[in-house]
Amino acid sequence: MATDPQISINASGATHIGLVRSTNQDSYLIDEEMRLFIVADGMGGHAGGEIASNLCVNSISQYLRQQSNLFSSTNERQHPDARISNAMANAINHASTKIYERALEEPSLRGMGTTATAVVVVDKFAYVAHVGDSRCYLLRRGFIYQVTNDHSLVSEQVRAGILTKEEADLHHLRNVITRSVGYQEEEDADTTSLALEDGDILLLCSDGLHGKVNDKELSGILTNHQTAAPPVLIERANERGGEDNITAVTLQISFKPTSSSPST
Fold first, then answer.
1. How far is CA 61 from the centre of its chain?
2. What is the pTM of this model?
C-alpha cells in the first residue's frame, strides 16, 4: 500500500485492565502499513465484551484491507474524499454484522457489543469513523479538541441543553450508550475528516481514560510525553480509581521537508 512520503506517523498504544475489573474488554489496533488505528471498548457478560471488541477491530481491519486501493496516496486525489468516509462507515457496519452473527450462534453472547473509534490517515488527512463513547481527540498547538461526539444518554442531553457538562459528569447514567457495534446488524456511524498539520497529536481512548482524566490533563500529558503518553495516561486513570478498563493510542504527525534542488 502506497503512503505519502511527506508525512510520518509515530504511533504508540497501551491498554490496562484497571484496578477493579476481572477481564479487559478493550481492544486496539495500530496498523502502520495501512495507517489505520482503532480503539474498541466491549460490553457483554460471559466474555462477550472481550469477544466483541476483538471481532470489531479485526473485522474493520480486514474490510479496509480489501479496499486498500482506496487508501493509496496519489497527487491527483482531492480531500476530503467521501469514498474514504463511506468505506470507514461500511467497515464498522461490516463489524457490526460479524458481531451480531456471532451472538446468534452462541446464545451466551446475546446482546454483546462494542464501541469503535477508528482513524485512517491518507495523505495529510485523517478520516474518523465512530460509534459509542470512546473518543478521538486532536492536540494542536497546545489546544485540545474532542473530534468525536459521544453516543451516550447524558451527552445527547447536554447537546440538547437538558444537562450541563458538569451535571453530566456526575450523572448516574453517564455510562449508558445509545449506539454500539454488534447489538444489531447495522449501526449509524459518525464520520468526519480533518486536514492534519505538522506537530498534531491524535489520541484515541476508551471511556476508562476520559472518564477519569479531564481534557486539560490530557492536553498536558500529551504535550509533555507525546508518543510516550499512553502508559502515563493509564497510570493517571488508575490513580483516580481505575474502575474500568483503560486504553490509549497516540499518533504524532510530522511533515517531512520537501527536497529542493541545490542552488547553482
1. 13
2. 0.92
